[in-house]
Amino acid sequence: MEQMGRLDDLYKFGTASPQEVVWLPGKVFARDERGGLPHLRIAVEGQQVRLIEALMDSMPEPFWLLYVLVVPRGEGQAGRYQASEPLTREQVRSFLERFRNLIELDGRHNVWLKSDSGPALLVLDRHNLVYAYDLGDNSVETLQQMGWVELDRAAIALPDPHAHHYHAMFDDEARDILATMQWNWTPLREQDY
């Protein structure tokens, strides 16, 4: 879907019925064990990069960065783009800041951040959900200090039907993200969709 306009008017994920609007779940999170691994499921209405940066502070560096391009618009082939080498905390912050608008406002991708020296993992998916694995107990405290409220996992449900937005104004940034470093490409997996 295409939408042009001011950045304030753009969003990557919304409800599609009865009328399309941005999905606004509130600042909520839940503990979840689906998939066999305990994790936090965090709904994010905006400032996803700020949340990722705050949560990654509890993760040991260096980090593996995975950019999952699900719906390309001419910038490259759909697939998983993993940084060819681990990145420092500052390199990750620089990447996230440089591509903040694309990451937060465009629905063509997912972003994964994995600690090289342990199991800690953050996933920002294209549905404006962050999944936090093995970050430790202080991640809940961090969320609560930032204003998130804990709910039962059933309370964080994606709208059905829903809509993703892929904005032409971010096509150049999407090309730049693939040119910013050396990536190792692999095909998409079922869970990427």
Question: Which features characterize this protein?
Answer:
single chain; alpha+beta; three-stranded antiparallel sheet; 5 helices; 27% strand; globular; disordered N terminus
Quick structural gist:
The chain is 22% helix and 27% strand. By secondary structure, it is an alpha+beta fold.
Describe the structure.
- With 193 residues, the protein is of the alpha+beta class.
- Helices cover 22% and strands 27% of the residues.
- The protein has 5 helices and 12 strands.
- The strands form 2 sheets. The chain has a 9-stranded mixed beta sheet, covered by helices on one side.
- The protein is globular.
Q: Tell me the strand percentage band.
A: 25-35%
| DSSP, total strands | 12
Strand order of the largest sheet: 10-3-4-9-8-7-5-6-12
Q: Would you identify the regions where 5 or more consecutive residues have pLDDT less than 50?
A: 1-5
Shape: globular
Spatial separation of the terminal alpha carbons: 16 Å
Oligomer: single chain
Largest sheet: 9 strands, mixed
What count of domains describes the coordinates?
1
Q: Rg from C-alpha positions?
A: 16 Å
How many H/I helices?
5
Layout of strands and helices, then pairs:
Layout: E1 13-15, E2 21-22, E3 28-32, E4 39-43, H1 48-56, E5 63-69, E6 79-83, H2 89-98, H3 100-105, E7 109-115, E8 121-124, E9 129-133, H4 138-145, E10 149-150, E11 162-164, H5 171-179, E12 183-186
Parallel strand pairs: 3-10
Antiparallel strand pairs: 1-2, 1-11, 3-4, 4-9, 5-6, 5-7, 6-12, 7-8, 8-9
